[in-house]
Design a protein that fits this description.
Blueprint: E1 2-4, E2 12-14, H1 19-35, E3 42-45, H2 46-52, H3 60-72, E4 74-80, E5 85-91, E6 96-99, E7 108-111, H4 115-122, E8 127-129, H5 132-135, H6 141-153, E9 164-165, H7 166-174, H8 184-202, E10 206-215, E11 218-228, H9 247-256, H10 260-269, H11 272-287, H12 297-307, H13 332-364, H14 367-380, H15 387-396, H16 401-415, H17 422-432
Helix pairs in contact: 1-3, 6-8, 7-8, 9-10, 11-12, 13-16, 13-17, 15-16
Length: 437
């Protein structure tokens, strides 16, 4: 996709952009360019847009909400030529139509761009070659923006991005139009540093270095230097294990009571496996017929996610919500369901404890044995794990947060391959002080 430089660092003047809306916009722009600048209206099968925007759900209501956001977002676009300066304030996206044509026929989407900027979007004079596949791997909005900026300036002689004030960057990197003042310390900690780490982990072509410009002791302007990486391997974008924006998982978080922006931000900054295991735990808790109803499923989920596993003594879980042994009067069916739920949770705790023990065991091994374990892991598991985790392993080995967890879990499995009996799990629960045991 050839993306106009002016459309990369978009600073919205009204409304807000999200990671998913940016992906949708990139996918629409890609197909617009393939169909040509002479087309006033563009058309595509909705399923193809869903695939290119990299989310795995047919939830058209959420898709529509993001399209509305783009229509409600206004941008300012300045261009200059020989003696001419032009300023345009425009919608990001024009009219959009989704047509459901009946059973057996594909659902289609049509869209327009505002006429004032359509040609520059669809047939740009200056552009950056943005790979839809790689851009789609970014898990957060700031990282997606910085990736496109890095791709733009990778071929520049200086490899230096635009130099702008902190407030400008805050709006561009968050997609927000309502920012009026910025504490740079928090912008750097919560937005920039996380985005740079994400690009370093997921982008094989380059990394970015933050450059700060001070006036006195105050940092007032920043820019980025693009640092090319040695090409690691071809065809990474076609890896079937590449990251996908799981809209179905985000939808489940929203169903728990989280706000849409909060659910998407949580998805972008949290290990997906951890999100899934915590969500499964909460869903089991909600299905329980023997425990009091939760006052807030969203609050319970966030607390369980923060603490790793719910149900441990001292974990801050309200006593009324902790698992409790059933009384005989509650019946056999209820007892069976409650026991099944508890045993599943205890197994999760047991597996986590075993992984921590494997980590400690590895640290106690002689260096030669550690090297042997690493080589065996690479031979047995490396080809099966997701590409970003594999790259993190090649770079940092067991010290990597994301790859280290995969390695230590594998080490636990080969060290203690036997499946625990119910008696072993119950003894573990009593020893650890799991509530209700």
């Amino acid at each position: 996709m050839a993306k106009a430089n002016e459309a990369i660092a978009i600073r919205p003047k009204r409304g807000r952009l999200t990671l998913l809306s940016r992906r949708i916009y990139n996918a629409l722009l890609y197909h617009s360019q393939r169909q040509g600048v002479d087309e006033p209206v563009y058309k595509l099968a909705l399923s193809e847009l869903i695939g290119d925007a990299r989310f795995n759900s047919n939830n058209t209501e959420l898709l529509k909400s993001h399209l509305r956001d783009m229509q409600a977002t206004t941008i300012e676009w300045s261009t200059s030529g020989t003696g001419l300066k032009r300023w345009v304030s425009s919608q990001l996206l024009g009219t959009v139509t989704i047509e459901e044509q009946g059973r057996g026929r594909p659902c289609t989407i049509t869209w327009r761009y505002p006429e004032e900027i359509r040609e520059r979007l669809v047939k740009p004079l200056q552009y950056t070659r943005v790979l839809l596949e790689i851009s789609g791997q970014m898990r957060s909005y700031p990282a997606a923006v910085l990736y496109e900026i890095g791709a733009r300036y990778l071929s520049s002689p200086s490899r230096l991005s635009m130099r702008e004030d902190v407030l400008w960057w805050a709006a561009v990197l968050t997609g927000r139009s309502d920012i009026t003042e910025v504490d740079y310390r928090f912008l750097k900690r919560d937005v920039i540093s996380k985005a740079l780490a994400e690009i370093d982990a997921l982008c094989e072509d380059f990394s970015l270095e933050l450059i700060e410009h001070k006036r006195g002791r105050r940092i007032e302007e920043i820019q980025f230097r693009v640092q090319p990486k040695v090409q690691q391997r071809m065809g990474a974008a076609d890896d079937p294990s590449r990251n996908v924006f799981d809209l179905e998982l985000v939808g489940k978080l929203i169903a728990l009571g989280l706000k849409q922006d909060e659910a998407q931000d949580l998805y972008a900054t949290t290990d997906e496996g951890q999100l899934r295991s915590t969500l499964e735990h909460v869903e089991q808790r909600l299905r329980s017929q023997t425990l009091p109803a939760l006052k807030s499923s969203a609050a319970y989920f966030k607390d369980a996610l923060k603490k790793g596993y719910a149900g441990m003594k001292g974990a801050g879980e309200p006593a009324a919500a902790a698992p409790a042994l059933l009384s005989p009067a509650q019946g056999r069916a209820g007892a069976s369901l409650g026991t099944e739920d508890r045993m599943h949770r205890i197994r999760e705790l047991w597996e986590n404890d075993r992984m921590q023990k494997a980590k400690a065991l590895y640290l106690e091994m002689p260096e030669a044995m550690q090297a042997e374990m690493r080589s065996r892991f690479e031979a047995e598991r490396l080809a099966e794990i997701a590409a970003p985790i594999a790259r993190a392993w090649r770079r940092d080995g067991p010290a990597s947060r994301i790859a280290g967890t995969t390695f230590h879990r594998w080490l636990a499995q080969i060290t203690w391959p036997e499946d625990p009996s119910d008696r072993v799990l119950l003894d573990f629960a009593l020893a650890q002080g799991v509530a209700g045991m």
